[in-house]
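Suppose a colleague, Dr. K., hands you the sequence of a protein chain of 555 amino acids and asks what its three-dimensional shape might be. Before reaching for any lab equipment, you can write down a predicted structure in token form. Begin with the sequence itself:
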Amino acid sequence: MAGFIVSNSFGRFNAKKKVFNATITDIPGVPTTVPFKDIVQGLPQDTNGYAGNNGWAYKKQLGKNSGESTNGSGRLTQAQADKYFEWSGGSPTNENTMNLYAGDAYHFRPAPGTIAKFQFKYVTNKGSSNQYPYDYVVNIKKSGLSIPSAATSTSYPSITNYTRVDTTSSSSGYAKFTVEFDGDDSSNYFSIDMGDPQVGGIAACKFYTPDGFFTRDQYPSDKDIDRVEIHLWSIKKKPVSGCTDPQADNHNVNATVSDNSCSYTTATISAFSTSPTTITQGGSSTISWTLSNGNFSEVKLLENGTNIMPTNKKQAQSSSLVVSPATVGNNTYQLQVDWTKPNTEIRNSAVQTINVNAPTSYIPCTDPNRDTDGNGECASCKSGYYLGSDGLCTQCSDPNRQYDTDGRCGDCESGYSLGTNGLCQKSGCMDEDDANYDPDAVIDDSSACYGEEDPVDIDCELSDWSDWSAWSDADTDSGTRTRTRTVITAASGNGAVCEHLEEEETKDPDTGEVIITTLGGGTTTTTTTEEKSPNLLVPILLGGAILGGVLLLRK
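The predicted structure, expressed as tokens, is then:
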């Protein structure tokens, strides 16, 4: 259970201290500074009219052990708060420190979504033995770890600012520390019952913190503690991460800190049209559009890729624009919807076309190399002509060039080469001492020169034939074998050309048929077939005459 219980023991009254109100951070509808006493009474109230049950400071309180009841909201009235607690910090309506004496008890659980920060000061007035506060606080432990040790460790950030003061005079000794409580953790609270007598339902000393549970079973009054001062430092709303933009698809109404998670959907194009879709050059057409909602930063209208949307229509959710395209043919109009938000979906667009026809105007064609249409206007170039850079149909004007099918210049005619002036000019042997000298040639073609005039006629001279190579099938003295000869003197002029330079003889081992093939030299390849058998005379037919002789079958 949450809240507080008080005993009917009022305790000693201490002098009032300087006003120091707790700071309240990021909680709508409440002041930025509030004294602890006002919060305990439920004042000031938030916009819903309460600070207690499900309120912004703490949850519902308990009744008082002696039977004194709270008001209907679960809070003490101002009279009850004044009667059962001593407060420090200023006037009765501006006090921020609750002082618990013997017989007093208090329990506090922070409201969800808040962080409550308190300072706890254990005080004794025992004169020469003022180390009692330290002895008590050092035994408030979690699994053997004391409050002073936790306050000096970075592993327990919710417990800080431990201070110990031992005095040997009659002045007070004390031990104090600061604790933060997380309202989103239902186990976070503190309970302090001074004892003498104890108050039912309130623990002697318990601190449930975000860093664990610290407790001690002995009542402070039983361990020479005169009072415990509970000072409220602050109550602040915990930051809630999420999308804080109301225009986002995933807006979190409870978020206080943006986590850059917002996502957006750009307005879609509900309608986009052109009327009319076909016009005559100089006419106009109306383009209209309607977007589904206002989720956009700018509407663009691209005419053939160029944005033509006037400034006064860039934010129009529904509007129209009159256009007069000048280009004959199809003109493209693209409506583009952009939204300059992070994580925005791909921008939406739609396309329409307007066809522009040229006005009726006939221009007689004066190009003699061009065909004409039914209106006498120029059409395509005639066969054998092409459209030149001057807009007229023409063909190659170089008389020494071949023409392509469309009349464009092709390769130079035979005996002509392309000159530096871009024209084909006569080429040939320009060596005056050459037998093929061409006096009309203007481009030198040395490959056309023959050499010296009236060259000497020299017949070809060949070496003797080499021996035949071994048969490829040595077992049957058949298969293939070859022999060669070389050129000793090459032919020139009108001399006899060289004859064959290689012979290949093939023999069938079964029939004895022999085929001789001659290769190389200045004559074509010849093949001679001979059918041979042992002891058979074979006549050789040469040039239509039968020559006598005997050709023995080679083995």
